[in-house]
């Protein structure tokens, strides 16, 4: 399946599955369609360490590619990062350590009721 054949629901499901497969914690989905034109959904997930954060982001990228979806970007990769971002077109995945997630508090920044999985 090519990139343009994916619906947002399919991309969300693919990303969530890849995070769950590597034991991502506190997976949250924010629908930001009414707030920005840059993306429709934001997924936020917590990793237990910087190494786990990187593994979660890498798994999202690899799972997407295996399913024919080419990510637009993967930022923050490397063992020293406490936050990685994977751009899956209209779905952006943020994976953070608990400390980074508490500090940046993206859910509160967007002032949207999150859907916690």
3D structure, described in words:
Interacts with ribosomal protein uL14 (rplN). This is Ribosomal silencing factor RsfS. The model has no long low-confidence stretch (mean pLDDT 89). Helix 1 packs across helix 2 (50-66). A 6-stranded mixed beta sheet has the order 3-4-5-2-1-6. It has one domain: Beta Polymerase, domain 2 (2-Layer Sandwich). The protein is an alpha+beta fold. It contains 4 helices and 6 strands, in the order αββαβββααβ. 37% of the residues lie in helices and 27% in strands.
| Major β-sheet profile | 6 strands, mixed
Rg, rounded, reads 13 Å
Discrete helix count: 4
CATH topology: Beta Polymerase, domain 2
Strand order of the largest sheet: 3-4-5-2-1-6
Note the run of SSEs as H and E: HEEHEEEHHE
How many strands appear in the DSSP assignment?
6
Name the overall outline: globular
Distance between the termini: 26 Å
Poorly predicted ranges (pLDDT <50, ≥5 residues)? none
Summed over residues and divided by their number, the pLDDT gives a mean of 89
Please tell me the total number of domains.
Answer: 1
Going by helix content, strand content and strand pairing, the class is alpha+beta
Which CATH architecture is right? 2-Layer Sandwich
Determine and state the CATH class. Answer: Alpha Beta
Q: Beta-sheet strand percentage?
A: 25-35%
Q: What's the helical proportion of residues?
A: 25-40%
> Could you state the CATH homologous superfamily?
Beta Polymerase, domain 2
